[in-house]
């Protein structure tokens, strides 16, 4: 797992820092909260979640691994703590390579409880995940404890809001 900086940006201006996980790039859209303890692949493959960002509320994701070759339909995946080791006998591989193969842009290291509270207070709010070359160079070069410049914050929020209107 070679994580780099990633940002989770909401249309209300909230920005959370995390690490990239899965495909790198940008995805924007509605956030769907998955409350299941297992079955993250079902949520990623669910037709109802096509082109949406799935938020896993279970804190530890990926220890069951990945199974089957059915495509993932979700566009993004938000998790708190991805598993370092696959520990299920039914696993056919690790989850992160499958996310990459299906171009699911992911972010980890996020306080998913805080995100659920934010979404409950702002129903229907859109979000975006930015990582890799989709993350502005200014942010990629910042120390993780340095505040993101306001101009970059505004640019990222505007990209999420614009996607809302399309």
From TrEMBL:
Carbamoyl-phosphate synthase small subunit N-terminal domain residues are 4-130
Highest taxon, organism lineage: Bacteria
Q: Which InterPro entries does the entry link to?
A: CarbamoylP_synth_ssu_N, CarbP_synth_ssu_N_sf
SMART domains reported in the protein's UniProt record? CPSase_sm_chain (SM01097)
What's the protein called, per UniProt?
A: Carbamoyl-phosphate synthase small chain, CPSase domain protein
Q: Which organism is it from?
A: Gleimia coleocanis DSM 15436
């Amino acid at each position: 797992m070679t994580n780099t900086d990633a940002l989770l940006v909401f249309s209300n201006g909230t920005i959370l820092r995390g690490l990239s996980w899965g495909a790198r790039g940008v995805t924007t859209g509605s956030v769907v909260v998955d409350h299941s303890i297992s079955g993250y692949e079902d949520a990623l493959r669910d037709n109802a979640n096509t082109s949406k960002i799935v938020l896993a509320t279970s804190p530890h994701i990926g220890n069951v691994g990945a199974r089957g070759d059915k495509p993932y339909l979700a566009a993004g995946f938000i998790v708190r703590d991805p598993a370092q080791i696959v520990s299920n006998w039914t696993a056919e591989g690790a989850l992160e390579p499958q996310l990459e193969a299906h171009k699911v842009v992911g972010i980890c290291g996020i306080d998913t409880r805080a995100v659920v509270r934010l979404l409950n207070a702002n129903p229907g709010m859109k979000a975006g995940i930015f990582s890799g070359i989709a993350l502005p160079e200014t942010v990629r070069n910042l120390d993780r404890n340095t505040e993101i410049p306001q101009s970059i914050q505004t640019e990222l929020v505007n990209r999420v809001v614009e996607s809302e209107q399309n």
